[in-house]
Structures are given as structure tokens and as C-alpha cells.
Amino acid sequence: MSKTHHKTIVLSDIHLGSAGSKAQEVVQFLKQNTCDTLLLNGDIIDGWQLRKSGAWKKKHTRFLRQVLKMMENQKTTVVYLRGNHDDFLDSVLPLRIGKRFYIQREFIYESCGKRYLVTHGDVFDSITSTMRWLALLGDTGYTFLLWVNKVYNRWRTYRGLPYYSLSQRIKASVKRAVSFISDYEQELVGLARARRCDGVICGHIHQPAISVMDGLLYLNSGDWVESLTALTEDYEGRWQLAYYVDAAARQGHLLPEEDDPDTDTAFAEEADTRQLLVSLAAQMAERATL
Ligand SMILES: [Mn+2]
Prior knowledge:
seven-stranded mixed β-sheet, 2 domains, binds manganese (II) ion, Purple Acid Phosphatase, chain A, domain 2, alpha/beta
């Protein structure tokens, strides 16, 4: 098997101990890719799931063993940053085991003349939690609210009061939620600047990315539940997103696109808001468990 050597590899959000964790794939990735420094950027072990169901499997142990092997055979330095799902580490950090294994909350990584703030990224969770009601509301909830709105407006008309648009109220909230990801990136880049860094390395939102924001690098390593991605850095200081692709996926099993749900023109405004809300609720529900 041919190996690619990198200066740095960043992995995050593997969620070992949960059903969705692609542990075998990430082990495979580490067999094909080696590095001097491995940054494990949070939510590597899913303590929340373990507490609930205890779904720890052999393949999850295999990942830890692979990391130990890298430390032993390739002298890889490993820095494990705690995430919100492995917050059980809070009681032990900062911790150094041997010469090459560190557990920390936050870490300034200096590489190729640049300074990077490495942090899982759950520090700005207050932004998401305020939007959590949207996830709970969902489709039926929204239909119910529209019905309440209709009854309420009938009463207002009876009282001679002007029409109250619930749709507009919800739309305003939805707009705020849509800007969540850009807010998240902006907040982290701001934090990196405050720490006099050239960039930020994070995870948490399961959205792999490399971008330049206000002159700073925003690097997100994605996750090993859905996107199966890692960040790699070469000796020139160039960052890349590595996507794990297995043989089956390479043959391409694309799902056929679904037809648009039919829209009632009489409720065009509602339907439009509703669609936006339903897709957003799904995203938010996912995010609420990140
Ligand atoms: Mn997280």
C-alpha cells in the first residue's frame, strides 16, 4: 500500500462509540496517510453516546491502536483537543502522556512560520442553542402554528385589528439561523485574531472548509460520520482537504433527485416559508446533536 506523508493531519468529530462513526474508514485513512503531527480536534470519542448506550466496538479500539502505532513507528506527535462530546476529558486536562501525547482544551500550533489557533469550536454554541426551538417545531408544529394564526386573525378581524403575519415573524428567525454558519466562521476567525494567529483550525459543525476570511485562514476538518474528511498540511505550509473515497463510492451510487413537493398557490407565502423551515429544522436537529 502506498503511503502519503504529510507534515500535519487534522481529524475531528469521529464520534467513536456512536453508531454513525466511520471508524474503519478513518483507520484506513491513517494507514494510507502518515504525518509528523496529528491533531485530534475534538469529538473523537463520543462520551454522550457511550453514557446512553455504550456502543463501543472493536473497530473503535482499532482507531486508538492505530494512533498509538503512529506514535511508536513514525514518531508522530499527537495533540488531542477536547470537544463537547468528549468533555469528560475536562477533568484531566492539560495532560501529557510520555513525550508525544498531549490532551488540551486549546492549542496554538506553530507551523511553517504561521500560528494557528486549534480548538474544537463549540465555544460559540450559544448561537445554536437559541435556534434549537426551530428544530423542535418541525413540520407538524409549523402546520399547527399556521392554524392557530388563522384562528387568531379571524378573532383580530372581528375585533377590528389589522392582520398579523406569523410567516413574517418566522421568516425573520429563519434568516438569523441561515446566517449561523457564516457567524460561526466569523466568530472563530475573530478569536484567532485576538490570539495573534494567522488562522483557526476547528471542527464541530461537520462542514469541511478551507477559506480566507478577513485575511485569516479558516480551516475546518469536517467529520467522520458523513463527510469523511481530514485536513493535511505539507512542508510548504499548504493546507488541503482530503476526502476519503472508498471503492464502492467511486462507482457512484447517486440517489435520484426528489420531485418538488406541490405548492398551493393560495398559500404561496406559507408554503415558501414552510419549505425553508422544514429543511432548516432538519439541519438544526442534526446540529443540535453535534
Ligand atoms: Mn462537537
